[in-house]
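Please predict the structure of the following assembly.
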Amino acid sequence: MADQVLFYFFAGLAVLSAILVVTSRNTVYSAVFLITTLLATGGIFLTLRAEFLFAVQIILYVGGIMVLFVFVIMLVNLDVSVRQLQFNRQKWVATLLSLVLGGELLAAFALARNNQQGRDLLGLPQAAATALEPNTELVGKVLFEKYMIPFEIASVLLLVALIGAVVMGKKRI
Amino acid sequence: MESMQALIEFFRPHLLPLIYALVIVAVLPLLVGYVVLLERKVMADMQARLGPMRVGPHGLLQPIADAVKLLLKEDITPANADKVIFWVAPIISVTAGLLALAALPFGPAFLIADLNIGLLFIVAISSMGLFGIVLGGWASNSHYSLMGALRSAAQLVSYEVAAGMALVSGVLLAGTLSTRLIVENQSAQGVWFIFLSPFAFFIYLVASIAETNRAPFDMPEAESELVAGYMTEFSGFRWSLYFLAEYANIIVVGGIATTLFLGGWKRPFAGTSRMDFLDYFPALFFVALAGYCFYRAPKQPVAVQKMVMALFGGLCLLLAAPLAAGLVPPLAGWKAPVHGGFWFVAKVMSYIYFFLWIRFTFPRYRFDQLMQLGWHFLIPLSILNVLSLGIGLVLHRQGGWSLGLAMGFSTVLTLIAAFGLAYASEHRRPVTEGEAEAG
């Protein structure tokens, strides 16, 4: 019961602030609402008892990426950006894409309903009522044992992006 | 009736944490006030002055007078400020500072939330306090504030990496992220982690000074350049909220350092029974403090001051009572939690005292020097330290070396790396004007 109340609270907050991110005219407000969206998503991780993901979500997205966003936004001349066109004219493409995405989600629900064991009303897997094993260890084991090679490839990819950014940003190194 | 029962059952496990949270929220402002008084007194001492002397003996009641003044001051919002964000920003800062305290273990039982990701939680939540500073600086619509906010953001993002890496070194030694288990594992190994990995502690110390915007790294509020930085336009209660957040953050970093490197709530030499006489120290300390308060109370010039001094003395006796009670055999169960709180706060206070020391002895850095120190020295050093510590731990756990030998070896490795880095940053080709503009 409490779990569901919390879930709907966080989910509603996430959706509402996500809408406000795109509709606010002021970029700083958009950034603030994006922070709320990310925090609410972190809250959903918590209701699923994935504390490690919650902490990483906040450290990476809120504490890292959003700080850089806000940092850049503050240097932008807001008076000019407020007067600029806010939406581009691709609403038919956008509608089509969102319909496809919605259909996909519904199909996923419909397919998942088939196996009932340990699933909730919508047929989705449910977190155990008691605390899981310590998440940090679980995530670490999966990353470094099962998905070792993809993990390393992703790290190399990030390194390449990092070096690329430095090379493009600086004329002389 | 039955639903009532269910409600009580539901809230029962949350009752104790709730009380702890209330205690922390109530005590923290008082503690902050006295940290500020301590700061002013230490500063005065180092500058051969007396510092606050008027309110109470040696200014002991100054924090209370200051708090009353701050609450009664006019609260001004600049005309062109962004009202909503200006209103929210200090609250974000203070909330983050207070929330981070939730995972700090003040004692074996005095811990609001025993999370298995405790340390990560503290780091995550306290990094959110930055938004209070950045948004407040932006919303003030003032150049000083904006510059302060920008500097603060850049500084925090840079030093968070070094601090995080230093924490990783500590976590490698402890083998867990839960703050309570870190302290337990530390006392199980019989030595504070500061002695096993002095470099991690050093890096965390420097990075935490930069993260809490303290001198010599107080660029976001450098008064000679930016008036008061991001706080320039804030006044009255809002300003005091920022102040509270700043000191709450100092207490949080002190708490992290205490938990991870200084043995947490355990008394010094917790394992040696020969040092058991240290258990008498907390109670005697408070009795002495109470005695001083009662001795000075009749000598105060104003009746209110006499009363408050006497009240203080009573408060100290009240604190001494549970500390002494733990020493009596029938009440031995009290000892661990109550003494834990005392030692934890004492260690945090010594860490803060060290901050003050540094603040009044070092001149302020220039902003580019600050960035250079962070990116060219501290971050590489912290990464190398994690590496060498890992080597040391493998030698200890798989190679059969003794803990002290392995850790000494890894410290020597880091020391060599530190000299190398220092040499490299001394002999770096300086960036010329043209290059700086080219990007």
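The mean pLDDT of chain B is 81. The interface with chain A takes residues 10, 82, 85, 115-117, 120-121, 123-125, 127-128, 130-131, 134-135, 137-138, 146, 149-150, 153-154, 156-157, 160, 177, 435, 438-439 of chain B (CB under 8 Å).
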